[in-house]
Amino acid sequence: MMPRTTGNTGEGRGSGHKGPAKGFAFGVASVTQALHGASFPISKEDLIRQHGKEEVNWTKDSSESLGDILKDVDKDEFLSVADVASAVSEAHREEGEEE
Q1: 17 with 55: CB under 8 angstroms?
Q2: I want to staple 21 with a disulfide (CB 3.0 to 4.6 A). Which of 11, 59, 83, 98 is the partner?
Q3: How far apart are CA 74 and CA 91, in angstroms?
Q4: Per residue in 9-47, pLDDT tens?
Q5: Could you report the per-residue pLDDT of 64-81, keeping only the tens digit for each?
Q6: Hey, CA dihedral for 87, 90, 96, 99, is it positive or negative?
Q7: Nearest residue to 56 (alpha-carbon basis) of 78, 19, 27, 85
Q8: Do residues 34 and 88 lie in contact, with contact meaning Cβ atoms separated by under 8 Å?
């Protein structure tokens, strides 16, 4: 049986890096990349001040600053990257339901 190829960027599993290379993630995965270096727990205000200018790629053709994304989140403090990702995902889902 031939090994399965994924056509990835060389980043990710087995390469010593977590996830795709910066610029290759979209949606919530791009949010987690924008949080690189953040220390938790952290307030939404501090997160926006420290990382708000980071660009998040929602799709291949659409990006938004992390600060603008976090403004729509109903949480004031985050305990981890996963906590931010969950809150952003929930806010994004609710926004889609309103349209």
Answers
A1: no
A2: 11
A3: 8
A4: 333 444 444 544 554 788 899 999 999 999 999 999 999
A5: 999 999 998 999 999 999
A6: negative
A7: 27
A8: no
pTM of the model: 0.71
**CA separation for the pair 42, 39 (Å, rounded):** 7
Residue 57: how many other CB atoms lie within 10 Å: 20
Task: State the Cα–Cα distance between residues 5 and 49, nearest whole angstrom.
Answer: 41
Torsion, CA 48, CA 29, CA 19, CA 43, rounded to 10: 30
Rounded CA separation 91/69 (Å): 9
H or E, element range at 95: helix 81-98
| Residue that is written with structure tokens 């060389």 in the block | 10
In angstroms, what CA-CA distances link 23 with 32, 35, 82? 12, 13, 19
Q: Measured on CA atoms in the order 31, 54, 88, 82, is the torsion positive or negative?
A: positive
